[in-house]
Amino acid sequence: MTRLLISTDLDGTLLDHYSYSAMAAEPALQRLRQLQIPWVLNTSKTLAELEPLRRQLDNSHPFVVENGAAVYIPLDSPLAPELALDPGGRYRRKTFGPSRRRILLALEPLSRRYRFTGFAALTSERLAGLTGLAPDAARQAMSRQFTEPLIWEDSRSALEDFASELSLLNFQVQRGGRFTHVMGRCDKAEAMTWLVEQYQALWNEKVTSMALGDGHNDVGMLQQADIAVLVRSPAQAPPEVPGRSDVLLTEQPGPAGWNDAVCATLQRLELGT
Ligand SMILES: [Mg+2]
């Protein structure tokens, strides 16, 4: 039997781009719960945003925050018991990226030469207005530890210059669905690969990874996964996934496409049929 590990983006992938609902993916999620297949939320969202979402989605698995900057492992999980607790004491944590404080220090001089607005300069009311998030959700989105999302207000070529300047300082710039993220040299792919290794060690079996995403910040994860799914977006053209000709592009957008891809994969791998 194949041991499957699913790593999924949230906004525009498991969650509808406009309504943030995962309802259309519920049939597949129920199958995964029955089959006890881990589905790892791997997102640009923060710990504060993911905690209520995991409860809503009835997800008890490890999760990846802020574009691969850290993996949180619930205390009742047998994975990676050697890891230290996170500052809140409710998870074990593996970090891959530098702190947000270091990123803000690096951005400060650049803000005089490029036009952008970082989350640090926004109020939660303004963010709520920009994203349609509820005020509480906007506050959770602003509670960041490892990345700084920006609203890019300068040209595309200025963004390239900005990214090369930051790259000299060992930071990187990734374009997400709505924001441009400045972060350390870590990504969703590295966190996914690390988790695959942890599950392989735990199960003592080869793990097949399946990744689902819709944006540029998902490309690395799609390149690395054994099974790669691009979920169609109502807001942007699907990104290129260099080096892969076997990426599945869903017919339907968001959670409906997610549902189709996961159900089809379970069937193809003869899991629970
Ligand atoms: Mg997305």
Task: Characterize this entry briefly.
Helix content is 36%, strand content 22%. It has 273 residues and is α/β, with parallel strands linked by helices.
What are the salient characteristics of this protein?
273 residues; binds magnesium ion; Threonyl-tRNA Synthetase, Chain A, domain 2; single chain; alpha/beta; Rossmann fold; globular; 8-stranded mixed β-sheet; 12 strands; 2 domains
Describe what you observe in this structure.
- It is a single chain.
- The chain is of the alpha/beta class.
- The protein has 2 domains: 3-96 and 187-268, 3-Layer(aba) Sandwich (Rossmann fold); 100-184, Putative mannosyl-3-phosphoglycerate phosphatase, domain 2 (Threonyl-tRNA Synthetase, Chain A, domain 2, 2-Layer Sandwich).
- 36% of the residues lie in helices and 22% in strands.
- It has 9 helices and 12 strands.
- The protein has helices at 26-35, 47-57, 100-110, 124-131, 135-142, 156-168, 188-203, 219-224, 254-268; strands at 3-8, 39-42, 63-65, 70-74, 91-95, 116-118, 148-152, 171-175, 180-184, 207-213, 227-232, 248-253.
- The protein has an 8-stranded mixed beta sheet with strand order 5-4-3-2-1-10-11-12. A 4-stranded antiparallel beta sheet has the order 6-7-9-8, with helices on one face.
- The longest helix has 16 residues, at 188-203.
- It is globular, with a radius of gyration of 18 Å.
- The termini are close together.
- Magnesium ion binds next to loops.
